[in-house]
Amino acid sequence: MPPRSATAIPAAKSTDEKITINLGVVDLGQIDLLVQEGFYANRTDLIRTAIRNQLAAHADAVKQAVARKTLVLGIQHFSADDLRAVQAAGQRLQIRVLGLASIGAEVTPELALSTIDSIVVLGVLQASPAVKAALASRMR
């Protein structure tokens, strides 16, 4: 058994999401052949490259849809302080994100309900299970 380090360095939290796809055996075999021949480091490398190529090919359509749907592109975080400021201003949020929307762990379901009218996330929503449950009827 290797010796343990005296100081542990916490791993950075990844914003990557895992997905599952079904492929036919011939497609999978071709992927494995390309990996074996050195075109790609592994299956994931090929799949990521293929997805990025498709996204690049449709970049104009994505930009137009983001503008039309008034989506925030990237990462948007809402802390309890942010939501209390919205509440103090007598306003309510319509959250629309393409990427990652994050609601702080310190945000209570009550605070979220009193400040968030609607939430649309094309990508990932990070929030406590209680906040997600409270906002479920406002998610589109």
UniProtKB/TrEMBL annotation:
> Which InterPro entries does the UniProt record give?
Arc_rbn_hlx_hlx, RHH_8, Ribbon_hlx_hlx
Q: Name one GO biological process term.
A: regulation of DNA-templated transcription
One Pfam family here: RHH_8
Alphabetized CDD domains for the sequence: RHH_NikR_HicB-like
Task: Spell out the protein name for this chain.
Answer: CopG family transcriptional regulator
Query: Which species does the entry assign this protein to?
Result: Azohydromonas caseinilytica
